[in-house]
Each structure stands twice: as C-alpha cells, then as structure tokens.
Known about the structure:
This protein is mainly α. It is built from 15 helices and no strands. It has helices spanning 4-37, 41-69, 71-88, 95-109, 112-123, 126-158, 160-181, 192-199, 213-217, 220-251, 259-285, 290-305, 317-345, 348-380, 384-404. It is globular and about 55 Å long.
Amino acid sequence: MKGYKWIICALLFFATTINYIDRQVLSILAPELQQIFGWTEKDYGYIVMAFQIAYAIGLLFTGRILDRFGVRIGYAVAMVIWSLSAASTAFARSLFGFTAARFSLALGESANFPAAIKTVTEWFPKKERAFATGLFNSGSTIGAIVAPLLIPFLALRFGWQMAFIATGSIGLVWLIFWVIFYKMPSKNDISPEERVVTHVDVDNPQTEKSVSWIGLLAHKQTLGICLGRFVTDPVWWFFMYWLPKYLSDNLGLNIQGLGIPLIIIYTVSSVGGIGGGWLSSYFIRKGKSVDFARKTSILIMAFMVMPIFLLTWFQSLPAAIIFISLATAAHQGWASNIYTIVSDIYPKNAVGAMTGLTSFAGAIGGIVFAPSVGWILQTTGNYHIVFGIASVAYLLAWFSLKIFVKRIEPVIVI
C-alpha cells in the first residue's frame, strides 16, 4: 500500500496527543485542586517533580527495552500503563496519592518519544524524518489544545474525578488500532519504492548488535545533545504545568476562561512544531547539508524564545498569548530537529536507547527546575526569574551543539 508510512505517522501523532492530554489534566485542574486539598506552591512543585523523577527513571530503560523487543510490543505495554495510571488519579485523596499516581503515569509515558522516534527511523528516509517528527510531535500541542476544551467540560459537568477517568480511557481505544495496523516495514504490504527507503539506510546501516551506555557516552555528540535537552526540556515542562496557574494567578482567569488562551497558544505551538521540521527539510531539499539545516533551524528557534522575558514588563492577556505562543512554537520547532538529530547521528539499533538517554537528561533538568519554580514563586510571588531563565535556555543549548557536535554525521557505536 503506497503511503502506508503516513498511517503509521498518524498513529504516532494520536499517541502523542493522548500522552499530552493525560499529563495536562492535572495542570488545568491545579487551581481548583489546590483549593480543595490546600496545596502550597511547593506542594504542587513536589507533585510535578515526582512525575519528572519517574519520567527520568523510565527513560533510562524504555529506550533499551524498545530496542530489544521492538516498538509494536513496547508502545502497547506503555500505553496500558499510562492509561490506567491516568485514570487512577481520580481516586487520589492526599498529596501522597496524587504524587504516586503521577509517578506511575510518568513511567508509562516515558516510552512515548523513544518509541515514536524509533518508529520514524524505521519507516522514513533521512530527508523526511524531521518533517515526520514535526507531524507526530505536533500531537503534543494538539493534546494541549484538546485538554482545555475537554477537561473543564468534564470537571464542571461530572466532577474532577471523571476528567481523569475519561481521558485515561482514550489510550485504550488507540491501543486497538496500534495492534491492528503496526508491523515492521518489511512485514507490511507496501510499495517496492517505499520498501527501499524504509528498510535500507545506506548512511547509517542497522545492525543487530545492541549498544552499551559506554558506547553512547564515548561520543562527545551525546554530551552535546544531552546538555541541550537538560536546559530546554524544563522550559517546556514549565509551560505544561504552570501556564494555567500563571494565567489564573496573574491574569485572573478561571477554569472556564482558560480555554481560549490555551487553545490559541498551543495551536500556534503546533504550527511551530511542523514548521520547524519543514524548515529543516526545506534547507536539505535546497542542497544544504544536514548539519547546516538542523543547526540553523535550531538557532532560529532559539531567537524566537527570547522575547518571553518581555512578560516581566507587559502584564496583559494579549501580551501573554503573543509571547508565550512564540516561545512554545519555537520549542516545538526545536524539538522536531533535536529529535531528528539523534537519528542523523546514531545507527538505528541505538536510536531508542539514545533518545531515552537524551530525554533522561531533559527529565533531570525538570527534576531540578520544578521544585525551583515552586520555591521561586512562593518566595518572590512573580514569574520574572523563571521567564528570564526560559529566554536564554535555547541559545545556551545551541552553543552546546556547536561545541560538542562539530558536524552532524553518522557515528559508529560499539
């Protein structure tokens, strides 16, 4: 079947959408739950940190598990774990209960991006990977768009518990389609042309030998990518978990009023994710090297984030929507390229493990940043320092790539 790879990409898109719906439920309901259960800013920071810790732990192992058992089985198991965990949050009644539920949710959700990146590597040639990555990764922003439409409706109509149960059940529906449709390219009835470009990658051939952590860490490129993820991922986590609270606490929006601003912000983010991947692919089509295409696209995204600092002076809803939309769109464009760089450099049998390792670095950054944000907000009462950190994080990450990844080209991993 010609074009079957885009069906696979669609499945990755919907999985990523569900992934972000499930993790967004808590942040949207946070202002209400904070009143019900009496959480402080630090308490909420600890809940977010628990998610980050579990996410980091999961990322240490999910990539290697996916490389060992394949994405068909690995993705399915992960979806079951995170869907049941998301639904179980409805039964939490204490800070410990919410923390435990989010911890379990993160363990399952940690497999999403290693699995998706590995799937793209198996199905798409190098020139299409950034675009395909941008498409499936836009599911993160679509999930963030759907969540503020769906969650307030469920919470106001049926109670906050139903918001967790209903959204947690969506993943089990996706699981049915995944089991039916996904097989390795070599086992699918695809066209001969597609079989050539999906099964063979002459620039970075696949081997059956599993890679070691030492083998990955022996390359300075690994350090560069990990450092980039360490300083930028926490910024995205901040937007995911604190944006509804920022709009509520600083601009006075209630749970119903959050919908339109969040939808606008994450719609723009989705365009940024696809646009960042398209821009990189465009440079390659125009004859530019992969190194130039990826790094130039990433630098452009870094400059787009910097105006977020202006929110320290402009405290208005229109300003918040404009500057935050620009920053989140830039992050998604950045992500489309940084994920793809992994498949540009590392062989296919190492992509899952390497994506897990770099995502682990990002999660460690989140572990450090989440309680710090809670402490900063409780101490200063404003977001000035947080926005200042966000404004320079991506430029620092670009410098990390320039220093440690001299040229984006395949390496041999032992």
